[in-house]
TrEMBL record:
Domain Ribosomal RNA large subunit methyltransferase K/L-like methyltransferase: from-to ranges: 168-352
Protein's recorded name: Class I SAM-dependent RNA methyltransferase
Entries under Gene3D superfamilies matching the protein: 3.30.2130.30, Vaccinia Virus protein VP39
UniProt keyword Transferase, yes or no: yes
Organism for this UniProt entry: Azospirillum argentinense
Gene Ontology molecular function: methyltransferase activity
PANTHER family associated with the record: RIBOSOMAL RNA LARGE SUBUNIT METHYLTRANSFERASE K/L (PTHR47313), RIBOSOMAL RNA LARGE SUBUNIT METHYLTRANSFERASE K_L (PTHR47313:SF1)
Amino acid sequence: MTSDTAAADRTGTDFEIFIVTAPGLESVLCAEVKAKGFRDATAIKGGVTVRGGWPEVWRANLELRGATRVLARVASFRAFHLAQLDKRARRVPWAEFLRPDVPVRVEASCKGSRIYHAGATAQRIERAITEELGAPISAEAEVSIKARIDDDLCTLSVDASGESLHKRGHKEEIHKAPLRETLAALFLHHCGYEGTEPVVDPMCGSGTFVIEAAEIAAGLHPGRTRRFAFEQLASFDDAAWQAMRSAGSAGTAPAVRFYGSDRDGGAIAMSRANAERAGVVALTDFQKHAVSDLMPPEGPPGLVIVNPPYGARIGEKKPLFALYGALGQTLLSRFSGWRVGLVTNEASLAQATGLPFQPSGPSVSHGGLRVTLHSTAALP
Ligand SMILES: C[S@@+](CC[C@H](N)C(=O)[O-])C[C@H]1O[C@@H](n2cnc3c(N)ncnc32)[C@H](O)[C@@H]1O
């Protein structure tokens, strides 16, 4: 790596990979990244950095449940004025990772730097790409370069994911206020869920927690069915990618089952359809009933994880205190030995359950609200 041209080495085998996540969940993602064997994992603001080459970039997209997107840092250099940016952007070995026949777009941001104009920054880099490589620029391009100038240091990254990774590619039906899959996976992880115990979501909506839990237990990779922007890059090796993807596609048969219920029949139909598309319908059980009719499934205790309606988002706030109270009562009286994870936007609603929550867990922005995970040890 040289400091003033490419951050990637010439063979593309060792560069920095930045794995973006929801702010607040960096350390939870870092634990997942380490558990999945990535090198030099470090949590920083907004995500986790690791080192590796293109195969690690593909694997991060394929395997990491808590990642929002994966950025390959391909170059970094000082740029104190636009002419210097122009000159140095032209020296980036674009052909090592971009294809001249594939459209590309550039998104720029500037902070605390002499170059302060994001539009001019993007324009200089776009011009360098078209004139040096020949690739067309298009606002609709699937491949994008993220340029960031911070303290006069310009860092260029290729967005290897394209569409946000919470879109696993097999969920078409969404209920009101769905949780993003990436957040659901990180919350499951933070509750100590490792794929070996049953999971119950008594307000399952479109089934996000139940399907994520079933996929984890079955050893299925989250990105197994979707496409990624990296498939359009010059560095892409289709045969190696197919081998990597199929290596994890068989899955394993878990010994436990995953249960969702909701009082809304439409939500149950959606959950079943989503589980079907994800290939985990045989591991799941979705039933239409209210939380007051919830009973623990046969077998060992496990984790109840739930994301009840929020005050500000759906419905009124007052009846919610009664709903949270009823949920807490049901769990305390029938779910001895189970742990509980509850995601909500108000501490007072969590308190209304009467559940013995530990100090609050990670808090994260979701759909314009700040939601926090509250979790218990095994209930008495
Ligand atoms: C915020 S949504 C859950 C979203 C879900 N986590 C997802 O990802 O799609 C809350 C859900 O609680 C359900 N609900 C509300 N009151 C209920 C009750 N008394 N019993 C069962 N479900 C209820 C709603 O129908 C809604 O699907």
